[in-house]
Structures are given as structure tokens and as C-alpha cells.
């Protein structure tokens, strides 16, 4: 084999190795999230019994690079007309296994969780009134001084829906329709359940699952 061909093959192999190393170990990429399939505005708690309102959504967080990202915190900013409210208490996980957000590694293949954004305990409640809403999710990664905006979505609450939301234990779900690329809203009311009755119902469910 000619010397020049051997040298060319060696140089090409070196370039390929360098590109592979950069893609695998050195390229930082970015932290991203998918379009939430469900968004909820309403009271906190499994039976909507707690006083303060929250925002809930389910989504996949992922990294565009092999290295992944260390997420320090998430928070949500909600705009309604000229009003702005931050929901800065982040709780994530799956049903029955929720934890306060205090650091999360997000790999390239991503992680899917329920995300609950709550109001601070010493702050005022936020009412979900009629109007157009802009919901933005922000992430702060380890070593970052400024949070990064991951996603912004637009939602609306109509007059009749806002009236229903003024009732106790009532919330509103926004379900995403990929065909129309928009959210469909529906109100849900949960009647008060006696704690003992709820305990017996849960025992019945657990037996059925077993």
C-alpha cells in the first residue's frame, strides 16, 4: 500500500475518533422538554382538598448531548393578561412516589415524571380567572447563574369555566391534541369524601390490584 494512502487513512481515522470523542464527551448540548400532554390548574391534594392552587404537568425532560445535564431546580411562571405569578416550589415523581425537587440528572434518553408546581406557603393564593394564559417553564442547571426557559405554551379559560373554578375542590385540565396542536380544556369537580370512606375504598383498590 502506498505511503500516502496509509497516511490518509490514519488521518481520516484520527478525525473520526476526534469527532466521536467530541460528540460523546465534550459537546454540552442543551436541556429540553417535550410538549406536555396534560396541564392542570387547580387545588393541590389528591382530593382537591388543600387550600392553595397549583399547576401540574407531565413531560419528558431530555438532553440533546450524550453527557446529560444536572438539573438543580425547575420553576414555572404563569402570565394572565397583565398579571404574573411564579410557582417556585417544585415536586416531581410518579403517583405515590413524589419528592421535593432538589437535583435531578437528565440523560440523553430522558426521564418522564409528573411535575407539580406549588405556591410558597407564606404567599397569597392565585385564582384561575377568565383570560388568556402564558405558561413558561424555567430550569436552573448546576453552575448556571441564570435560569433557561425550556418551553412556553398558551392556554385559555372561558367565562363559564372560570365560574366553575370558583367552586371548592374544582380544577381544570388541558389535554393536548397533537392533530390540531392545541389544548382542549375541561373542568373537573371532586365531591368531598369522608376520610374513613376513602380509606376503605383504598383498601378495596389495593385488594383488587393484588
Structural classification: alpha+beta
- Helix % is 10-25%
For the secondary structure, the number of strands is: 13
What top-tier CATH class fits best? Mainly Beta
Tell me the major beta sheet: 8 strands, antiparallel
Uncertain segments: none
Descriptive report:
The protein has 210 residues and is of the alpha+beta class. The protein has a single domain, classed as Immunoglobulins (Immunoglobulin-like, Sandwich), CATH 2.60.40. It has three helices and 13 strands, in the order H-E-E-E-E-E-E-E-E-E-E-E-H-E-E-H. It has helices at residues 3-26, 159-165, 195-209; strands spanning 31-33, 38-43, 53-63, 69-80, 83-87, 89-94, 97-100, 104-106, 111-118, 131-141, 148-157, 170-177, 182-189. The strands form two sheets. Strands 1, 2, 3, 6, 7, 9, 12 and 13 form an eight-stranded antiparallel sheet that branches. Strands 4, 5, 8, 10 and 11 form a five-stranded antiparallel sheet that branches. A hairpin with a 2-residue loop joins strand 4 (69-80) and strand 5 (83-87).
Q: Can you give keywords for this protein?
A:
22% helix, five-stranded antiparallel sheet, 210 residues, Immunoglobulin-like, elongated, alpha+beta
Task: Give the arrangement of secondary structure elements.
Elements: H1 3-26, E1 31-33, E2 38-43, E3 53-63, E4 69-80, E5 83-87, E6 89-94, E7 97-100, E8 104-106, E9 111-118, E10 131-141, E11 148-157, H2 159-165, E12 170-177, E13 182-189, H3 195-209
Antiparallel strand pairs: 1-3, 2-3, 2-12, 3-9, 4-5, 4-8, 4-10, 6-7, 6-9, 10-11, 12-13
Short description, anyone?
The protein is an alpha+beta fold. The chain has helices spanning about 5-25, 160-165, 195-210; strands at about 30-35, 40-45, 55-65, 70-80, 85, 90-95, 95-100, 105, 110-120, 130-140, 150-155, 170-175, 180-190.
